[in-house]
Write a sequence for this structure.
C-alpha cells in the first residue's frame, strides 16, 4: 500500500468509527431511557441517611440540606421506606409515631412522601403509599400539600379541617386514612 492509499484508508477508518459511534449514541440513548423506566421496582425499608438526598431534592429544594432532616427521623418507632430501581432511590416516605393533633385520631403520621421528578406520574407514589398502608396496618394522618391532596384522596384519604400555611413550604391540609372508618366529618 503506497502512502496515499494508507492515508486514504486511515481517513475512511476514522470516518466509519465516528459514524458508528454517532449511530450507537442515537440508538442507545432511547434504549437506556426505556431500560431506566421499565426496570423492576422494589419497595422496602430504608435508613435515614439513604432518604435525605431525595427528600432534600423534592421537598426542600433551594433550602439548606439540614432542612431535610425531620424531628424524630431517628426515633425507634420511626420507619422510612424507599422505592428502588436499578440501585437508585426514586421514591421515599416516612411514618412517625405522632398523635393526630386534633383530639382522637390516628397515632401514626405520614411525612416526607416524595417521588423523583423523572418518575412522577408513573404509579410509584401510589405503589409506595399502598405498601406503607399495608405494613402500618393502622389509621394514619398527614399534613398534605394542597397540591398533592387529590393524590391522597385517590388512595382513600380524607381531608380534615381547613387549609393552613407551613412557612417556607406552602399551603397544607390535614388528611386521614382510616380503612375501617366510614365517612369522616370533613369539618372536624
Ligand atoms: C405527590 C407524589 C408523591 C405522587 O407520586 P406519583 O408517583 O407522582 O403519583 P402516581 O403516579 O402514583 O399517581 C397516582 C394517582 O394520583 C394522581 N396524582 C398524582 N399526583 C397528583 C397530584 N399532585 N394531584 C392530583 N393527582 C395526582 C395520578 O394522576 C394517579 O391517578 P390515577 O390513579 O387515577 O391514575 C409525587 O408526585 C411527588 O413527589 N410530588 C412532589 C412532592 C409532593 O408534593 N409530595 C407530597 C407532599 S404532602
Amino acid at each position: 500500500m503506497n502512502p496515499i492509499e494508507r492515508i486514504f484508508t486511515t481517513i475512511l477508518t476514522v470516518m466509519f468509527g465516528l459514524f458508528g459511534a454517532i449511530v450507537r449514541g442515537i440508538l442507545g440513548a432511547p434504549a437506556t431511557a426505556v431500560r431506566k423506566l421499565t426496570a423492576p421496582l422494589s419497595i422496602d425499608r430504608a435508613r435515614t441517611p439513604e432518604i435525605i438526598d431525595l427528600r432534600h431534592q423534592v421537598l426542600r429544594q433551594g433550602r439548606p440540606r439540614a432542612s431535610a432532616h425531620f424531628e424524630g427521623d431517628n426515633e425507634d418507632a420511626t420507619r422510612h421506606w424507599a422505592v428502588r430501581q436499578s440501585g437508585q432511590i426514586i421514591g421515599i416516605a416516612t411514618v412517625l409515631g405522632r398523635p393526630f393533633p386534633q383530639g382522637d385520631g390516628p397515632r401514626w403520621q405520614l411525612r416526607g412522601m416524595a417521588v423523583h421528578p423523572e418518575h412522577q406520574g408513573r404509579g410509584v407514589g401510589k405503589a409506595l403509599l399502598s405498601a406503607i398502608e399495608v405494613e402500618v396496618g393502622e389509621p394514619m394522618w398527614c399534613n398534605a400539600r394542597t397540591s398533592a391532596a387529590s393524590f391522597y384522596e385517590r388512595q382513600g384519604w380524607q381531608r380534615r379541617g381547613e387549609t393552613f400555611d407551613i412557612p417556607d413550604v406552602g399551603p397544607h391540609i390535614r388528611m386521614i386514612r382510616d380503612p375501617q372508618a366510614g365517612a369522616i366529618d370533613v369539618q372536624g
Q: What stands out?
A: Helices lie at 3-38, 48-59, 124-136, 149-154.
